[in-house]
Amino acid sequence: MKRVYVNEKWCLGCRLCEYNCAFANSGEKDMVKALKGKKIYPRIRVDEHDGITFAVSCRHCEDPICVKSCIAGALSKEGDGMVKLDRTKCVGCLTCVLVCPYGAVVQDERGAALKCELCLTNTAGYPACVKGCPNAAIVYEERD
């Protein structure tokens, strides 16, 4: 399965991946209308540790503990390996946020879970974070 991978050596910490993600999932056609003056809720986030910046997003784990811990059945692993979130089923317990070892599941504006779905469920059809990274620090590829 293709996944998003990050090369922290190339990450500038510019957060354009976050903005592109939030815009791609906003449902708006205009980035300014979608994001200006609003708190954004990207499904990827930039972290910094010891001066190294890197993007964090769902890794679509082989054996996802978030799926096992979801009391509402809102998280599931699809046949293609992608971990999907049915936001209509999420009750906002946020157990998935607590158990994700990568910190890739976050809380949205309504208090429900939010995670990367590789932009396959929105109109982008290809990870917006990858398209928007000016330094090619984020890639979408299949690896062994």
- What structural class do you assign from the helix and strand content? alpha+beta
Radius of gyration: 15 Å
| Average of the residue pLDDT scores | 93
CATH classification class of the largest domain: Alpha Beta
Number of strands: 8
Biggest beta sheet attributes: 2 strands, antiparallel
**How much of the polypeptide forms β-strand, as a percent range?**
15-25%
The shape, in one word, is globular
Q: What is the straight-line distance between the termini? A: 9 Å
Which architecture of the largest domain does the CATH hierarchy give at level 2? 2-Layer Sandwich
Order of helices and strands: EHHEEHEEHEEHE
User: Uncertain regions: pLDDT < 50 for 5+ in a row?
Assistant: none
The CATH topology of the largest domain corresponds to: Alpha-Beta Plaits
Helical residue percent band:
10-25%
Number of domains: 2
